Amino acid sequence: MRTNSRMDRARQAATIVGVVLQVGGGALAGGSVGRVSAENPTLVVPADYAFVVWGPIFALSLAYSVYQALPQQRQNPLLRRVGWFVAGAFAGNGLRQILFPAELFVASQALLAGIVACAVAALLGLGLGRVYRERGLGWADRWLVALPVGLFAGWVTAAVFVGVATTLVGTGFLDGGPFEAILGVILLIVGVVVASVVVRSARRGRAQGYVAYAGAVLWALVAVVANQYDASSITTVAAALGVVLVALALLAPLRSRGPRNAMRNAS
Question: Which helix (H) or strand (E) holds 257?
């Protein structure tokens, strides 16, 4: 019991540190991820307005950190299952906001892949476990855990594929030409497939998580269409088709879901 209590306290503290680092990382670096992306343009980078999503992400991550730090949430089985993944994702994102503006592209991209792995693991973990199967999630767990995790996971999923192209441009391996458009289409296709699989898999959990995830991905894809409309018709079409596919993954019925689960997840 003492070991569990120490681990719970450590998880709560690690989450707070991760959130502080995430929110303050950009200020420490003296730059921004959006600015560096704009300085290394690719055919898959979203329009500038898309990056305002970080405002809600930061606000929700702060709310999550406060909620999970409450003494009565220390032994919350949901937070025990996903909390370390979330703490790792937040801390990694804070470090990335220091590495990326410093134009350490390869290190930043490798770190981003790890962030995505942690965030998606947390998202999928929302629908696992005996407690969830028996009673589902409470109001606070849905809005202060599932929603922040889903939104964050969706945005970094989109970012990791955009980041591949940005890394290649930033390191000098990609400099325009037809290959850039082909690469853009490949990245969009792979990204949409991955996001669609995650959405379908996450739909065993509460809607706040998987809807927020899909919403963040759709936000990114629409911003790609808006930004690349005049630059590349092929990547624009690929992004537009991606919007349709992710929306289908979100809305299409799940054959394996029973009526009881469908009613519970809709609440």
Answer: none
Which residues are CB-contacts of 181 (< 8 A; sequence separation ≥ 6)? 43, 232, 234, 235
DSSP assignments along 62-108, one per residue: HHHHHHHHSGGGTT-HHHHHHHHHHHHHHHHHHHHHHHTTTT-HHHH
Nearest residue to 170 via CA among 97, 94, 100 = 100
Integer Cα distance of 107 and 38 in angstroms: 19
CA separation (Å) from 246 to 189, 198, 200, 222? 11, 10, 9, 11
Q: Which of 90, 100, 91 is nearest to 31 (CA)?
A: 100
State the sign of the Cα–Cα–Cα–Cα dihedral 228, 234, 237, 242. Answer: negative
Per-residue pLDDT of 98-151, as tens digits, reads 999 889 999 999 999 999 999 999 999 998 755 455 455 788 999 999 999 999
Give the list of residues 6+ apart from residue 179 with CB closer than 8 angstroms, or none. Answer: none
Kindly report the pTM of this predicted structure: 0.91
Per the CB < 8 A criterion, the answer to whether 187 and 165 are in contact is yes
Task: Encode burial over 89-112: b for 16+ CB neighbours within 10 A, e otherwise.
Answer: bbbbbbbbbbbbbeeebeebbebb
* Helices 233-251, 207-228: crossing angle, 10 deg rounding: 170
